[in-house]
Amino acid sequence: MEEAKTAEDVKAERLRRAREIAEKKGREREADEVEKPEYGLSKKERLKIPRQPMPEQAPFVRIKNFESVVLGYAGEVALLEAERCLDCPDPKCIPLCPAEVDIPAFIREIVKGNLEGAYAVLKENNALPAVCGRVCPQEIQCEQDCLLAKKGPVAIGRLEQFVAEYMLERYEKEPPRVTRYKPTKEKVAVIGSGPAGITCAADLAKLGYEVTIFESLHKPGGVLMYGIPPFRLPRRIIEAEIKSVQDMGVEITCNTVFGKTITLDDLLNDGYRAIFLGTGAGLPTFLGIPGENANGVYSANEFLTRINLMEAWDFPNADTPVYVGKRVVTVGAGNTAMDCSRVARRLPGVEESRIVYRRTKSEAPARAEEIDHAEQEGVIFNFLTQPVEIIRDEMNWIKGLKCIKMELGEPDESGRRRPIPIAGSDFEIECDTLLNAVGQRPNPIAMGSIPGLEISKWGTVPVDERTMQTNVPYVFAGGDVTVGASTVIFAVGQGKKAARGIDAYLTAVRDGRIKWGEKLAVAVSAVSVAG
Predict the structure, then answer these.
(1) So what's the pLDDT on residue 39?
(2) CATH number for position 202
(3) Do 487 and 404 fall within a single domain?
(4) Do 336 and 420 belong together in one domain?
(5) Whether residue 322 is found in the same domain as residue 418
(6) Residues near 175 by Cβ (< 8 Å), separated by ≥ 6?
(7) DSSP letter string over 139-167?
(8) Integer CA distances (angstroms), 41 to 82, 89, 91, in order
(9) Is 269's pLDDT higher than 70?
(10) If you average pLDDT over residues 84-94, what whole number do you get?
(11) What mean pLDDT value characterizes the chain?
């Protein structure tokens, strides 16, 4: 007579079966074929599972292409990583997620083998889960206070990427039945189709509003499309997630510059009752040093827009070229600087890609993962180095960069130690292309076209942090336009708050508690807009 299987036997059989499926299906990620467990692993058993590494293209391979560097978890690996979640009774990850995702719930669905259910949890509060899984700094947000932080926190971002991309691939073959929301409320205009605008529009559509996004460029996506290279964020992922928002009923009108081709009066006369400004921070900050107008000097915005949006990396197959020489220097050490230097490393004819930064590696604002990837790909780093002059030839082409060495003094207002020049330490770096990536600020065209709109001395739009309402009562704003260059997930969070603020404002007008054009005087509760 066959002996009854113990719980231990069931668990062992389950893991063995998972490995067999993963080996059979290879990289196809057929994770939904993994059998649902009859028993969950104990806490002690979960603690024995190490954090699963993310497979990547080898550096010597990826510097020759623009394909995704990270390859994503296979089904077996994702299951093991999901098993590490201790399902805390008081999870610290949820409050640290600006998108308000129920993180333990989507991970539980992975453990059950229910990837469709996991995706539904992600999409309930986040219109861009595949994007966020790839580019959000989870290490300083949802993963930061994980109970496993010392050992290696649960790889929440990697699991989010796995689920979202698996479902997007599946939907390419089997298009989902997306709920198309029938507008029952007022018209709302969203200016800009970046992460803040897309999120705000999606949440408003769920709440019953008739939403149109107006985008100045010829493709929607904002900074996702023009600012982030395809080896970090493939275009198909952006396009698929934007399409899912359009399928909900959100209209997107491209090639429309608010303040130029369409005005505030045009929108108001067309019946729009509220405006959301999500125009981002697309205006470059300059170095302010002699020679900055030399040929061969680019702002990061222009360089990355040519590469990412206009696909200059594929010239002459694409229409837009980009000129770079043999030696490229990028100034700055944020994520944008890493993108510039890594893009340059991949372009034909470039022999050397170098980062120049006035502080040390530990003060660099870029994600550690992005710095590591740049180092692996051969980008050279000159820390504690400050550019002081661009050296030009007789035809005004850049031929070098004069720099001075720095040392760190006392902390400044940002909390980082202030860089101080070392007298007599001047030196030159030979280069024929310079990419300026020291920061961006909001473009004034959109905000300047709204009469009476308050604009700060930094060129940003002040808002009520509870509602994202500006001093013009029917105008709301969120994302980089309110703070300067920030992160995708910060913009997503502000887009969500703005949707609730707009709903509260128009509801108050509809109910007769305030007149249209009067300020919303009450705080907005964190209501769900799930649909």
Answers:
(1) 42
(2) 3.50.50.60
(3) no
(4) yes
(5) yes
(6) none
(7) GGTTTTT-TTTTT----HHHHHHHHHHHH
(8) 11, 16, 18
(9) yes
(10) 92
(11) 90
